[in-house]
């Protein structure tokens, strides 16, 4: 056993290097680089950052004024999802230009959440347009199978929200 | 090497799995099931299964014990060394066309150092030492013994190759278990084991890379199968005997080397008093003496401790048996009888008379054995018989009856009588024991015992006062030293003690 210690130590170091080195290399080459390329090519994105962990990828985005959820976000999300190779992925859009739109969002949030919870989806655009009219900002709201997309714009300010339709069992719920 | 890599890689893999967030438990389970399956698959008879120890006690290295560390046994050592020289000078052997020695059989009473000799042999030849014992080949499965012999030889070979040695010594202790005479159909399994051993030993030649020498030890050489004993199997038979006085002195010296001895301790005397002790008993003696010294909180081992240890090794530890006053008196009378006759037969022979019960005995007389002696005259044996009978005779003299305490003495006396008759020293003359009827033997034996008993009683009659005086001391002190006893004897004996020739 005495003369085996160096072998054991060497094996430990080499194994650690191989396993972790290999994993980081794989992550860099197969995930991070393609994602960064995609994000560079995408329009209306000011800055981005990709954070990877063994089972989760987080993409931080700072969009410019022309960014549109329907035209830019959805195709980008589809592309990034493909590149994530099955890992969970979240895209965080930085809100550095929300200003008074945040108050508006707080007001319309009730209506939207109620609409989602009661599955009365027509209530959502109704609430949003009423609020937009009252406070003079542009609002776009649409939905697909899984999400409700909301986009508020006023002068230089913009606010983006993507709300899941099938929320976990929480929040407002119609038991009737 | 493979094991070391596995040991190194496993923690790395575990760390990586934990980092990935994968629980390693399922992996453990899979590996565990795999190992279990492997064991079960391998666990055919003969292979060590779960919880079983490996068959042989493998010694990777050469034992660190040389012939100098073995006390006495000069002749056996010289003989063994000579045999081992064949293993060392292999090239010379080839030049002379000498067939290498295949086996050495060490035989002798228990505790004489056969195992030590084998270890020293391995050290002397710088060989790998593999040891096993006969009983390790005994298993409930058939064929296991033979397989184990094969494995044993294989192990010796690989072991030697691994440690770059060109010879290996296989030591089989208690070989009589497997090497017993083959007869009838009772022990077919042992036969297979023995046959395998014989074939493996036949396969040993000088051409092989690793030369294997089988050293076997037994204390029942007469039981061994003749096929084992023939030349070409166990070529050399070396008897390891009980140590003589010189050897005992040396053994005691070796064992007391690491113990604090008082300056006045006379090892010479202890060696004299321990006639018939084996090496193991001598070792136990020094150990017990050290224990006594420690119990008493004495810094050094004194002569007294060694003396007590002799009693302990010979007779067993002191017992707490409570005897009544009557019994104690009777025992004292009995022992004094032994002591008086012993002193009459061989002056200065009584070393101690004790009333302290030890082992099975309620009291005892310890003798100075005198010189080591291997030949006895008729007179000497008769003297011994008288000593044996003296206990009972003393009881009869004092109480007018005898007790059961003398039973063991009679057994001994009968043994001596038998020796007398067998050796042709009785009135029957030189005889063949097989041709003599039991009645006749009994008659002769009784005649001898009766005559000697009468003589003993007469002898004791001269010492009536000694009995009284010595009894007082013995009952009070429980112990009467040889010198004290002789003084009483001189003072109170009716006649001067006659020294028998």
TrEMBL record, chain A:
Highest taxon of the lineage: Bacteria
Protein name per the record: Uncharacterized protein
Organism whose genome encodes this protein: Marininema halotolerans
Automatic annotation (TrEMBL), chain B:
Residue ranges constituting the AAA+ ATPase domain according to the UniProt record: 100-244
SMART domains: AAA
Keyword Hydrolase: yes
GO BP annotations, alphabetical order: proteolysis
Cofactor: Zn(2+)
UniProt key word Zinc: yes
Domain of life, per lineage: Bacteria
InterPro entries in the cross-refs: AAA+_ATPase (IPR003593), AAA_lid_3 (IPR041569), ATPase_AAA_core (IPR003959), ATPase_AAA_CS (IPR003960), P-loop_NTPase (IPR027417), Peptidase_M41 (IPR000642), Peptidase_M41-like (IPR037219)
Alphabetical UniProt keywords: ATP-binding, Coiled coil, Hydrolase, Membrane, Metal-binding, Metalloprotease, Nucleotide-binding, Protease, Transmembrane, Transmembrane helix, Zinc
Entry's transmembrane regions: 12-41
GO molecular function, one term: metal ion binding
Family of this protein: In the C-terminal section; belongs to the peptidase M41 family. Belongs to the AAA ATPase family.
Xref: PANTHER family: ATP-DEPENDENT ZINC METALLOPROTEASE YME1L1, METALLOPROTEASE M41 FTSH
Protein name: ATP-dependent metalloprotease FtsH
Record organism: Marininema halotolerans
